[in-house]
Design a protein that fits this description.
Shape of chain A: globular
Largest sheet of chain B: none
Distance between the termini of chain B: 9 Å
Helix content of chain B: over 70%
Strand content of chain B: under 5%
Distance between the termini of chain A: 46 Å
Structural class of chain A: alpha+beta
Number of helices of chain A: 18
Structural class of chain B: mainly alpha
Largest interface: A-B, 50 and 51 residues
Order of helices and strands of chain B: HHHHHHHHHHHHHH
Oligomer: heterodimer
Number of helices of chain B: 14
């Protein structure tokens, strides 16, 4: 009896031990990458996407025709769904794309167990969707008025309430099952950048129609991952797409810093990571503590945590000791002050108005901004096109630098005398003030203080106007914002995306300074017709100088992005443009890190 | 009783209408135009007009108001303007995490506060009573935000007793792994004011003549406290509890945000930030209705607990 019991206990122990080992062994083989995002996703229909976090997830689920090379700096367009780079003819007006063969959409019940291959009609359908008024696409501007015949289709849809996807569009010529020739309405050498956006990830018409009205909940693409579990606004997992084609990690670079990474990753099938676990963590502290605890694998350092993480531009020793790595890169963005040229008080192109604007811009202390607002994670940028974006000029010297004394001299010279309180008046003796528009964030409160101090130095009254963000945009578009510190991040890495901010016809759209100068506009239009070249760079320098001469804008800063990486993450290199690069990474799965 | 309930329900209609008008005109005055956000940063005036047309915000005010009232009557608030998710689905999925936090918090807070209030009422004036009151005052004076920041750092990051943040789709895992720390921190703020309030209610009863009579009749202190004092003190305690019920529908924004819990509080704040009117409308109407129903329930329970109360 005792022996029986002993045997039973021994056997059952082995049985349960086996089960326990099996259960615990499974996760050890599964490579899971953990990361957080600071804002909730907004659904996964690429055509409706406007935020970077959603775009980052879509970058892994969908594939656009082109993408950016993982390692090349400055960034370089490379094929993704396209078999090769497009043939560009007719002075940048005709683009011939040839698709890779045998690219299959991720499995979905809509396909009824068929392996659905991507074809040229899918590309045409994907592009057409941007012009469907029902989709309200925030990225419509990338194809709006650019493709022959496409706007006529959109205009018809506005009248009838129905967008006819079956109607042929002259500009979307399907040459064959794997070829599409796109005819543009004018020269546009940046069209390739549009085709590299995650929003232009190719979708299947039958999927969109099957999930009509709920396509944002059913993302089906050809990318390396597909959506797994999803708790809206909280967390989601991406799992490997079983239909993803056989592709190997093959990136090259001349940068010595990239060589270990290349050695580590070359030849590995893409993707290496089995599952990506994404949590929405809005609070910086929660994300930072999670990272320190090893619950997250990478972390974009929130601005206010920079002093905790960095000593100068180096990682703090205690973090280095944990094997944590730091990568820093310049964001393809600028912060810039603009003054509304149509403002009743500051606007106008007379000598005294231009002098007043230039004096105001000279009084602004960028170094204080960098120290107080950006915690040292920014640097003075003079050119309207930031580093890493085609057209950037690192040697450009600004005319408008911080110099309150010179600003005061200029105002005195132009007759803006001071009243008994020490504040300046208009030349005719009427009150003079700068109405500065901000939103309601704590950062904006700090910014207001700096602005007030800056303007006090030159004796100009500061009046603040606080609005909710949508109202700021509305006021800007109505030319009702007198002055503001604005920011612009590259939609695509080309100078045109920045220079268009001051183009006259863009008043009531992006041109918040409402600057309308025929000379400036002519030079800009000339630049639009040119590819990235020294000739175009020369035009950009002229445009930047004119903005300063007329006291329209002062480019203030560019920002530094700091990324912390856990020691077990392999192949990571921060990319300035791609919203996510998770499929190019690997996890050193020796040991349980989480 | 039935007549009273019918009358009260009828009285809710003008109140609800007042709430509807207030929310509607407030949002239209200061809510911001979501079209400028939804349109993206490179939108033309035509794009913005198209979005307004689709959202119905280009309609005359009286038509927008009519649509709002129709939505309340049918209970269908449409889809979120920002994410296209149906408002009903948002409330259905986001309410559960908030309730997983708030219901245990409410139960633990009430039981703890009542027990401690009974203890300090019996020992009023003693060192224990005075110490607890001082501690309560100190705890009430500290903001929930401080508790969260310190608690998260100490208990989750340094000591590692809890995860720093997170939520799952398993109820058991949420209750046992993710919810305990936010509940604990929430209780640190909520117990103190309840304890002070309930102590006042109980002391009011302890000083009544019927308590002296009960003691004179030789009843044990336990019997006096639990049968007589607590039953009468339960009326204002219950009222306080019922008044707190509608708060369950608005979640615990700070806790949800810091612990990455997909609750309704976080969703409502997000809706306000995005000027997502369908969610704001639904939340306001639900809370208004819940508040009125809680009031009605409190009155009915009053009648049950105190037969001297007449419902007119």
């Amino acid at each position: 009896m005792i022996n029986h019991l002993r045997q039973l206990v021994t056997k059952s122990s082995f049985f349960f031990l086996g089960i326990a080992l099996y259960i615990n062994a499974y996760p050890a083989h599964l490579k899971v990458f953990h990361l957080s995002m600071s804002a909730a996703e907004t659904g996964f229909d690429p055509v409706m996407t406007s935020d970077l976090n959603t775009a980052a997830i879509e970058e892994q689920i969908f594939e656009s025709l082109l993408t950016y090379d993982y390692l090349a700096r400055p960034v370089k367009l490379v094929p993704r769904l396209a078999a090769q780079m497009p043939q560009i003819t007719n002075q940048g007006k005709t683009w011939l794309f040839t698709l890779k063969k045998g690219v299959i959409f991720a499995p979905d019940p809509v396909f009824k167990n068929h392996r659905r291959e991507v074809n040229a009609a899918d590309v045409a359908y994907t592009i057409k969707r941007f012009m469907d008024p029902k989709n309200r696409s925030p990225y419509k501007f990338l194809v709006d008025h650019k493709i022959v015949g496409l706007n006529a289709l959109a205009d018809a849809a506005k009248k009838t309430g129905h967008f006819d996807y079956d109607a042929p569009v002259a500009g979307l010529e399907i040459v064959g099952p794997y070829q599409i020739r796109i005819h543009l309405t004018g020269t546009d050498y940046n069209f390739g950048h549009a085709m590299a956006q995650p929003m232009f990830g190719i979708v299947a018409r039958e999927v969109i129609e099957a999930y009509h009205g709920d396509s944002a909940s059913h993302p089906v693409g050809t990318g390396p991952y597909m959506l797994g579990e999803w708790i809206r606004s909280a967390s989601m997992t991406l799992v490997k797409n079983p239909n993803y084609r056989h592709e190997l990690w093959h990136f090259t670079s001349q940068d010595p810093l990239d060589q270990p990474l290349i050695k580590e990753m070359t030849g590995k099938p893409i993707p290496q990571i089995d599952k990506i676990d994404i949590q929405i963590v809005e609070e910086s502290q929660s994300a930072y503590l999670s990272f320190l605890k090893g619950e997250l694998d990478v972390l974009g350092v929130p601005g206010q945590f920079a002093p905790k993480v960095l000593s100068g531009d180096q990682l703090k020793p205690q973090l280095k000791r944990q094997g944590i790595l730091l990568q820093r890169l310049v964001d393809p963005s600028i912060a810039y002050y603009f003054i509304n040229v149509q403002d009743p008080m500051l606007g106008g192109m007379s000598l005294s108005r231009i002098a007043l604007r230039r004096a105001i811009l000279m009084a602004l202390n960028d170094d204080e901004m960098i120290r107080v607002i950006y915690k040292g994670q920014a640097f003075r940028e003079a050119f309207p096109i930031p580093e890493g974006v085609a057209g950037h000029d690192a040697t450009y010297q600004s005319l408008i630098n911080y110099n309150p004394r010179e600003a005061n001299d200029l105002l005195d010279k132009m007759g803006f005398r001071k009243d008994k309180d020490g504040y300046r008046l208009e030349v005719d003796g009427s009150p003079l003030y700068v109405k500065y528009t901000t939103s309601l964030t704590s950062q904006d409160r700090d910014l207001e203080e700096i602005m007030k101090k800056s303007l006090d130095r030159i004796g100009i009254r500061f009046v603040s106007e606080k609005l909710k963000f949508p109202e700021i945009i509305r006021a800007e578009r109505s030319c009702r914002v007198a002055m503001r510190l604005s920011a612009w991040i590259a939609d695509y890495p080309d100078g045109d995306n920045f220079m268009q901010l001051w183009y006259g016809p863009h008043t009531h759209e992006n041109n918040a300074s409402c600057y309308q100068d025929s000379e400036w506009d002519k030079i800009y239009e000339k630049s639009e017709a040119l590819p990235n070249s020294p000739e175009r760079d020369q035009l950009y320098r002229q445009l930047a100088r004119l903005l300063e001469i007329n006291g329209v804008t002062k480019v203030s800063t560019s920002h530094i992005r700091n990324v912390l990486i856990q020691p077990w993450v392999l192949g990571y290199k921060a990319h300035p443009i791609l919203p996510s690069t998770w499929s190019y990474l690997d996890i050193n799965s020796q040991g349980d890190h989480h | 009783m039935a007549g009273f309930i019918v009358r009260r329900v009828l009285q809710m209609i003008p109140t609800l209408l007042g709430v509807i008008l207030l929310v509607f005109f407030l949002f239209n005055a200061v809510g911001g135009d979501p079209a400028y956000i939804l349109a993206g940063k490179m939108a033309s005036a035509e794009d913005i007009a198209n979005i307004r047309h689709q959202l119905g915000t280009d309609q005359p005010v009286y038509i927008q108001l009519e649509i709002f009232i129709r939505q309340i009557v049918t209970g269908n608030f449409g889809d979120s303007w920002a994410t296209h998710e149906s408002v009903a689905h948002i409330f259905k999925t986001r309410l559960t995490p908030s309730l997983i936090l708030l219901i245990p918090m409410m139960i633990i807070e009430t039981l703890t506060a009542v027990c401690l209030a009974l203890l300090v009422s019996v020992l009023r004036g003693s060192f224990i009573d005075q110490s607890l009151m001082v501690i309560s005052t100190v705890m009430m004076s500290i903001s929930l935000l401080v508790y969260i920041i310190v608690g998260q750092y100490l208990f989750a990051s340094m000591l590692g007793w809890f995860p720093v943040k997170g939520w799952s789709d398993s109820l058991w895992r949420d209750i046992t792994v993710y919810a305990p720390l936010p509940i604990l921190l929430g209780l640190m703020v909520s117990i103190a004011p309840s304890l002070r309030l309930y102590r006042t209610f109980i002391l009011d009863e302890i000083n009544q003549d019927y308590v002296r009579t009960a003691r004179a009749k030789g009843l044990t202190e336990t019997r006096v406290l639990f049968t007589h004092v607590l039953k009468n003190a339960a009326i204002p305690i219950l009222t306080n509890l019922l008044m707190g019920l509608p708060g369950l529908l608005t979640g615990a924004f700070l806790l949800e945000r810091f612990f990455a819990i997909p609750g309704i509080g976080r969703e409502i704040i997000l809706a306000v930030e995005r000027s997502d009117f369908p969610i704001i409308k639904a939340a306001t109407v639900y809370v208004a209705v819940a508040t009125m129903l809680a009031n009605l329930l409190a009155d009915i329970l009053y009648r049950y607990l105190d037969p001297r109360v007449n419902l007119k």
